[in-house]
Design goal:
It is built from nine helices and 19 strands. The chain is α+β, with helices and mostly antiparallel strands. Helix 1 runs antiparallel to helix 2.
């Protein structure tokens, strides 16, 4: 997991203005029996992912690090040995694997891509995790945990001889810790037609944090709901993931318009008292005190969190590979494609759509499509303003969200508004140094 802290103001995008968050210490996790949520009607139930199998992969990654200078970092022998271990498991299970090679910081890096035979090749569901560690440690939670959960889910697909409607592809990324290098390279080398075939990408980065929280990405409504439904079935409350938003490999996909989702159990931030009441653990301590540290070993894993998140991924893969990953828009669509510049740290600007000829009120699930090109999306506050003047908040500013662009479809309960009238997308840049423009704004009734 690559997370940057900005200790000084004003904030700059350059690497020299960022400091890597480092947390130290060790905290043992607890174990709990595996529980699976009920599948949706008509869907083949996902299997329970054996915790013992996932931990066996972590033990192998630890052994690889021990034999290779204590880490599995990009450009080091431990990374390639980790990739070869994962590839060997997948090859034996019947996957078609390929290694994608790139160069970063003067060293050769590798992505591993594994395709399960069958499924609609025009509808590709992907799940992935970064396989590299930082150079200071073995990286067992960050991100052996996500890599092992993705691997064991892929192996569960093979054991079940799953015949999904969609084509399944799993991936392990290199050089994430250097700036999402491997996943960016993969996406950049997809043609436009290939990108259009990827119906969703699921990312697991740190899913066994010792003082765990349960965080779900909110980037795509359907993928978010799938994970939330799983945890709701366990009676485990979730929160929206914000600590690493835009700083893991899902951002590479999101930035080109591919729907993304994912899971996270926390890194260097401190667990609050309210979160400790919800999830257990220790308030006032980091979710992972060994984040980016030499103590991120196999003793730095919460078994309960690792088990639940592994099962949640399997649930999502089984659910989302059957049928469409996104709900098709219904009804009529209205769009404004005029570009509107968003001034740096300036006044709010807007893009308007005038709707006429409709009867009654707007729907309770009005779909609001937003396409904003911007070099630091965390600066932006985005609202929908209805014909009555009522404001619906779509996105808050978040100083830590350094990803580019806002390309989202939001759902708004606008049933209290008349359908006819002027609808306004209002955008304000609330911080200095980054600019952009509203590219388009769309309403689907």
């Amino acid at each position: 997991m690559r997370i940057l802290a900005f200790p000084i103001s004003p904030r700059r995008r350059s690497a020299t203005a960022a400091a890597v968050v480092v947390a130290v210490g060790s905290l043992l996790g607890s174990t709990a029996p595996a529980v699976s949520a009920a599948p949706a009607a008509g869907t083949v139930a996902a299997p329970d992912i054996p915790l013992a199998n996932v931990k066996a992969h972590l033990n192998q990654l630890q052994s690889i690090a021990n034999a290779n200078g204590g880490n599995r970092a990009h450009g080091r022998s431990g990374y390639r040995a980790s990739l070869d271990y994962v590839k060997g498991k997948l090859d034996a299970a019947g996957y078609t694997t390929r290694i994608q090679q790139f160069t970063s910081s003067g060293s050769t890096g590798y992505n591993l891509i594994a395709d399960w035979p069958g499924g609609d090749s025009d509808q590709v569901l992907m799940a992935g995790a970064h396989l590299d560690s930082v150079s200071s440690g073995a990286g067992i939670n960050d991100n052996g945990s996500g890599s092992a959960a993705v691997l064991e889910t892929a192996l569960a697909v093979a054991r079940a001889d799953l015949k999904p409607d969609k084509h399944l592809r799993f991936a392990w990324w290199g050089a994430e810790e250097l700036g999402l290098v491997g996943s960016r390279y993969y996406v950049a080398n997809l043609s436009g037609a290939e990108r259009a075939k990827v119906s969703g990408y699921l990312n697991l980065d740190m899913v066994g944090s010792p003082n765990a929280g349960y965080f779900v990405y909110d980037d795509d409504p359907t993928l978010e709901k799938t994970f939330k439904d799983y945890f709701a079935g366990l009676g485990v409350p979730t929160e929206i993931e914000t600590e690493g938003d835009g700083r893991s490999d899902h951002a590479s996909f999101k930035n080109v318009g591919i729907p993304v989702g994912g899971l996270f159990t926390g890194a260097g931030r401190t667990k609050t008292t309210a979160q400790a009441r919800k999830w257990g653990g220790t308030a006032g301590q980091s979710f992972d005190r060994c984040y980016h540290s030499s103590c991120d070993t196999t003793s730095n894993i919460n078994d309960t969190a690792l088990d639940r998140n592994s099962d949640a991924l399997a649930y999502a893969v089984w659910e989302l590979s059957s049928g469409d990953t996104t709900e098709p828009p219904t009804g009529d669509t209205y769009e404004n494609t005029d570009d509107v510049s968003v001034p740096d740290n300036g006044a709010a600007v807007h893009s308007d759509i005038t709707v006429s000829g409709r009867s009654g009120n707007a729907p309770s699930a009005l779909r609001v499509g937003v396409d904003i090109v911007h070099t630091w999306r965390g600066d932006l506050v985005v609202d929908l303003v209805g014909p009555s003047g009522r404001t619906y908040r779509l996105k808050n500013a978040s100083g830590g969200d350094s990803a580019d662009n806002v390309r989202e479809t939001y759902t708004v309960d606008a049933s209290g508004e008349t359908a006819n009238g002027t609808w306004r997308l209002r955008v304000q840049d609330t911080a200095r140094y980054d600019t952009g423009y509203i590219n388009s704004f769309k309403l689907t009734f």
